[in-house]
Hints:
Structural class: alpha/beta
Amino acid sequence: xxxxxxxxxxxxxxxxxxxxxxxxxxxxxxxxxxxxxxxxxxxxxxxxxxxxxxxxxxxxxxxxxxxxxxxxxxxxxxxxxxxxxxxxxxxxxxxxxxxxxxxxxxxxxxxxxxxxxxxxxxxxxxxxxxxxxxxxxxxxxxxxxxxxxxxxxxxxxxxxxxxxxxxxxxxxxxxxxxxxxxxxxxxxxxxxxxxxxxxxxxxxxxxxxxxxxxxxxxxxxxxxxxxxxxxxxxxxxxxxxxxxxxxxxxxxxxxxxxxxxxxxxxxxxxxxxxxxxxxxxxxxxxxxxxxxxxxxxxxxxxxxxxxxxxxxxxxxxxxxxxxxxxxxxxxxxxxxxxxxxxxxxxxxxxxxxxxxxxxxxxxxxxxxxxxxxxxxxxxxxxxxxxxxxxxxxxxxx
Length: 397
């Protein structure tokens, strides 16, 4: 009812997919939560967004993942007056069923930049008004608009989820956008049959933290990530342009998708990556829970399983799980263990390991021997690797 907060917990579509979908998928088939370490411990996932720290990163970290947060682009609240003017003209072309207001500042910027603010308010007065938080709702009321719905969570994403779960087909929606990832949610509404007019009250600029962008490019090119999430097309394009400008784009593109699972919040970011030959997974809707579930399935499916010395072994990105107990392991040694676990009945020579482990491609026999030694020290009490004299190494069976 107008004026009442929307409670996402009352709708099954808003539940935490990471727990409901992923844990059940990796349980013993009874729906019980699997035993052992946290679901994503031992995996490193990069999250590239318009923020220094996105809420998706928080969700993944709560389930054990190590997060590399990267601000790929900045969203600056300085609207392009021409763009807002064009969008407002489109809004005024016909009646509007729903209006999404992402922030109080965004609403004020829209009204200030609108060519006919009084006429715009008349159109908004006849629509259902959806405010992301209490401040946005108060700003609407201060403009003379009374019947306002807001979210209990104080999140614009919950407004989009609400519309998507309430038959948006045929409805005309005006959406004030604060950030580039909100365009992905607008795209989902269009796919569901809504006519959406986007009113961006921000411009994008390169991030202040160039070191963060440089770091994620290095990690991608060296295959030192277990997955990468790209949350908007503008940030994705900027990071890839940075990689190209520093001669790293071929190495990055070669790793993404083929060796590092890639997720995009929605089809816009996926199209930006596809332009560079990278295919990405896209959740059914561009929200944190669905994205986290898809990422979790991707990294868990790439974990290598074997039996070592009669015990179950799972090799994660930078950890080994032996008989349900997790042991952190450095990247070089864990990559050696992964190669051995993929061929448990085979003896791998130093030359074989150099071919199978990118990080050891230029290593000599002594360096590989040291990697095996560090692996043994990292997992005390278990005999993981046997040395076959003059031949190489094999998994202990």
